[in-house]
Amino acid sequence: MLLKSDEIKAAAVKYFTIYGYEGASLAQIGEEVGMKKQSIYAHFKGKDDLFLHVLQEAKEEYLYSKIKYFRDIDAQHPEKDLYGFLTMMIDLFQKNEQLKFWLRVSFFPPVHLTKVIDKEVDDVETQVRVVLEEKFQGWIDHKKVVDDSAKRLTLAFLGVVDSILVELVYGNDEKTLKEKLDASWRVFWRGIQ
Amino acid sequence: MLLKSDEIKAAAVKYFTIYGYEGASLAQIGEEVGMKKQSIYAHFKGKDDLFLHVLQEAKEEYLYSKIKYFRDIDAQHPEKDLYGFLTMMIDLFQKNEQLKFWLRVSFFPPVHLTKVIDKEVDDVETQVRVVLEEKFQGWIDHKKVVDDSAKRLTLAFLGVVDSILVELVYGNDEKTLKEKLDASWRVFWRGIQ
DNA sequence: TCCTACTTGACGAACGTTCGTCAGTTATCG
DNA sequence: CGATAACTGACGAACGTTCGTCAAGTAGGA
């Protein structure tokens, strides 16, 4: 059994993701967990407070799921590991509500919370880039990929990741998604060899 | 001097882009053009009607600016023309409010208008893909790029475009943008040769 | 064990505000 | 005169938020 506050957060993630901050109402969220909107105030100070709690959890989920993947891999199989990362991202985003929330919010944050959100997003992106760049440096040193700057290869790969995220946001069918992944990946991989 | 209805549409684009459909109010838009929100009803049937008019114009702008570019180029210089397309996209998005609007709306449409919007977005994407695919076929025939399927190369390039759009949405500084463009482009170009 | 004191979570009612919308009126101009 | 476009005024509905209250559960001391 979940804590009531966790139930509320789960419902909030859902509605914030679908309708956005302004489009989601506390009444809606309350109804989802079987309570009136006033009762939410027993658990959170208000809409902003609820949103920021959800944001924090989504950030951790996003950061953890991205960084964890690269923690335990060696410097021997960039092709398998990079491609595996892309498919993992696709799987995660289709399953995990928090990642969809993070994506929407980082793209189009509610204006009065832009400052906070941009800071968090920047923090996450930086951490991911650092971890990934170390990996690419390893692959370059082991001559597994082309002898280019690790920074450039990292940015290029993150570009591929972004293009996949866009496809996920558009919510196209599985087939289109796979084609897009296949196309981007093959050209990318040929480009870094 | 603009028509008043065009002024309203221009203000609407601005606020819809910044605050989203739910976050933008007619009062705000009216104030921008120096009239009361009720007066907007002399020009549009309501908020949805205004939004859909704006959507239609943005679609045409988006479609035209993308397709026009490829109309008048030959099959001889893919490197110059493809890279030129990317820099043009960057320029346009930084100047043109309607393209930012289109981007936001196509990513996260207001739920009750999802049907209409998705249809328009799909229409545009298909048209762009067709035009681009013809170009790639020409380059393949002239042996200017790798002998792969035109469809795959098209999707891969559109992936690069998407990754640039993401960067534009994030609104990072000029330097980061150029680095990202440089990285994605170099790897892509190496990958299709 | 029983009474009390305090906490927790949810409630109805109401607050002030804003929302989109409609009706009726006034002013401008060909 | 008729048409157009702006205005004022008012509408119900929904918004986030605050208030006082009430039932249920917990803790502690006599």
Brief descriptors of the model:
homodimer; 0% strand; DNA-binding; mainly alpha; 193 residues
Structural summary, described in words:
The structure is a homodimer of 193-residue chains. The first copy, chain A, contains eight helices and no strands. In chain A, helix 3 crosses helix 5. The model of chain A has no long low-confidence stretch (mean pLDDT 95). Chain A has one domain: Tetracycline Repressor, domain 2, CATH 1.10.357. The radius of gyration of chain A is 19 Å and the shape is elongated. The first copy, chain A, has helices at residues 4-23, 26-32, 47-71, 78-95, 97-107, 114-141, 150-170, 174-191. With 193 residues, the first copy, chain A, is mostly helical. The first copy, chain A, is 77% helix and 0% strand. The structure holds a DNA duplex (30 and 30 nucleotides).
Topology (SSEs and partners):
The structure is a homodimer.
Chain A: H1 4-23, H2 26-32, H3 47-71, H4 78-95, H5 97-107, H6 114-141, H7 150-170, H8 174-191
The structure holds a DNA duplex (30 and 30 nucleotides).
At the fold tier of CATH, the topology name of chain A is Tetracycline Repressor, domain 2
| Main pleated-sheet profile of chain A | none
Shape descriptor of chain A reads elongated
Integer count of domains of chain A: 1
Q: Which blocks of ≥5 consecutive residues of chain A have pLDDT under 50? A: none
Quick check: average pLDDT of chain A?
A: 95
Percent of residues in helices of chain A: over 70%
CATH architectural group of chain A: Orthogonal Bundle
Give, in order, the helices and strands of chain A: HHHHHHHH
Determine and state the CATH class of chain A.
Answer: Mainly Alpha
The end-to-end span of chain A amounts to: 51 Å
Instruction: Write out the CATH superfamily name of chain A.
Output: Tetracycline Repressor, domain 2
Oligomer: homodimer
Q: Please give the count of helices of chain A.
A: 8
Structural class per helix/strand content of chain A?
A: mainly alpha
Number of strands of chain A: 0
User: In percent terms, what proportion of residues of chain A is strand?
Assistant: under 5%
- Using only C-alpha atoms, the radius of gyration of chain A works out to 19 Å
* Largest interface summary: A-B, 44 and 44 residues
